[in-house]
Amino acid sequence: MSLLDILDEKILTPSAAYIKILSQYKTSDNTIFCLVEGVEDNSFYRHFIEIYKEDIPVKYIVCNGKQNVIDNYNELDWDFYDKKRVLFFIDKDFDDYIEREIINDENVFITDCYSIENYLVDENILEKFITDNCLITTESVIKLAVENFRKQHKVFVKQLKMISSWMMYCRKNNFEVCFNDIKMSDLFKIDDEGNLTKKTLSTYRSKFEYLCDTTQTNYFNLNEIRYYYNLINEESKPKKFIRGKYELYFMFMYLKYISENVVNEISNEVKQHNRNARGKDKIVRPKSTIPLKEENIFQVLYNKTKVPEKLKVFIETL
């Protein structure tokens, strides 16, 4: 049987993970089973679990969606399975804001931000990218880049509050809306000076009109949306209400600006310096060491992430 023969539609069914556990779980060994939402979740959690559980065999099962992870948790007979050996990892999403029932169990990890992508956006990761992937080590340059990142991120958060409010309103009312249809590239860009700017939506009268049109919906209730806006306006941690993929796109835009504009500018200055410098006084020219694309930004950054404290505690208590 070829690999393509194996990859039939049964692999994608919610029951596939359940069947895999039934067939592979043995009470006689200590193998840990980790059920995650998707492929990127697999990469993210594996990175940390193998640090703390390097001597224990671990199997990762991609369930293709949050609800499938939850369904598998509900299906298993916990009088038979050891909860320290069958673990579940899911994103919080908007569950706390819209008062959706949240699983609370010792073997279920739920992100303390919207999703795992939010963990990939912070100043520490930015510094690592500048040093590792742009070969810039000058502290003054890094400091300026971080300060500007902090400033532009605040602008981004302010702009996302209304969008997040509308999204919460949709989720609370169980409207069928695909948030992937909303493209941050339609709404924002970072210019050559490193400033976040809004793109002109010339064909729309408002941001809400864009949201409804691009998602092919007409859901809009100002009072309900305002309710959620007031909630998140009091929130001190934006990662709890900004969709992870949207925040990661902001990170992508900023890193793109660094790897193209800043790297090129400094590289030209170093080139001029090295022309007149002696061998020992020459400086390594900055350059981008990896092609940066929206499609690979997760894979570029996830291994630069510090283990989230909540995840660290979860793993250590197993």
TrEMBL record:
It holds the Pfam family DUF4435. InterPro entries: DUF4435 (IPR029492). It comes from the Bacteria. Residues 30-262 form the DUF4435 domain. This is DUF4435 domain-containing protein. It comes from Chryseobacterium taihuense.
